[in-house]
Q: What sequence folds into this?
């Protein structure tokens, strides 16, 4: 289940069929559907990119204008396809995968090879794409660079893998839970910092000869860690915010951004182009030996 649903960060109209990650086999298609056919294996994306709006035309289909239509819990036409005893049931994230069958927009069904295990392909639908593509697409991590990641949950583990795939030399993970820090090393983290034992910024500087890191990723969603990413990057470094925006205000020293020419970037779905990036992600690792985490 989506962490942001559990914590209440996302407002979900109820009742609803939850599940924002999924993969399956197309059973039937409606009139006008041309991108898939019955029997196709697909990954489910929660962004129904149109392919022709301003952002899609520039390669930013994760920002598609069409995807904003419909409203929470509904498809693009503002309605749902689920009912029980004359009561409307909502679609979570246009995917609603916690069911034997789901009604999906064709734009949300991404065809994949049939030899890929569906239980592994399902993970590509959100956390893997969000994390790996944040490193590869949004930040564009370069070989030999240094990276800090705040948090060691599912999204961050995939950021770590993305940074490793991109050739980062030093990948530092910061968390409060020692077991999570140890687990992150299986995904490519080279160093770990227990944030409960001291100031993580000081530790990052110690590990980078006082220069801080090239890239810092935040995937927790607190004002404190948002700010820490900015203070942990070197001049001309990039801070990438992946975690859902904190509801409390944050205080940021503008001078460090101005004088250091630092860049702060949001990362929505890893700046992914679902129809291109999702099949590509499947080939970054052997399907039967995958470390993808959700």
A:
């Amino acid at each position: 289940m989506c962490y942001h649903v559990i914590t209440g960060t996302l407002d979900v109209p109820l009742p609803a069929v939850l599940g924002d990650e999924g993969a399956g086999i197309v059973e039937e298609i409606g009139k006008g559907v041309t991108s898939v056919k019955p029997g196709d294996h697909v990954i489910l994306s929660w962004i129904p990119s149109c392919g022709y709006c301003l952002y899609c035309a520039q390669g930013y289909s994760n920002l598609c204008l069409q995807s904003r239509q419909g409203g929470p819990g509904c498809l693009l036409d503002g309605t749902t396809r689920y009912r029980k005893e004359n009561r409307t049931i909502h679609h979570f994230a246009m995917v609603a995968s916690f069911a034997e069958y789901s009604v999906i927009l064709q734009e949300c069904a991404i065809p994949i090879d049939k030899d890929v295990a569906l239980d592994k392909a399902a993970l590509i639908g959100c956390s893997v794409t969000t994390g790996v593509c944040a490193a590869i697409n949004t930040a564009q991590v370069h070989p030999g660079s240094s990276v800090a990641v705040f948090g060691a949950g599912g999204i961050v583990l995939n950021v770590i893998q993305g940074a490793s795939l991109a050739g980062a030399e030093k990948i530092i993970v910061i968390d409060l839970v020692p077991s999570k820090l140890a687990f992150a090393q299986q995904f490519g983290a080279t160093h770990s910092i227990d944030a409960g034992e001291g100031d993580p910024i000081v530790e990052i500087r110690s590990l980078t000869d006082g220069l801080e890191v090239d890239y810092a990723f935040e995937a927790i969603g607190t004002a404190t860690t948002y700010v820490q990413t900015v203070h942990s990057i070197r001049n001309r470094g990039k801070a990438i915010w992946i975690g859902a925006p904190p509801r409390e205000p944050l205080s940021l020293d503008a001078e460090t951004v101005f004088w250091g020419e630092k860049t702060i970037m949001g990362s929505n779905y890893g700046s992914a182009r679902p129809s291109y990036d999702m099949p590509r992600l499947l080939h970054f690792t052997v399907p039967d030996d995958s470390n993808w985490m959700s």
Observations:
- Residues 131 and 158 are 5 Å apart (CA to CA).
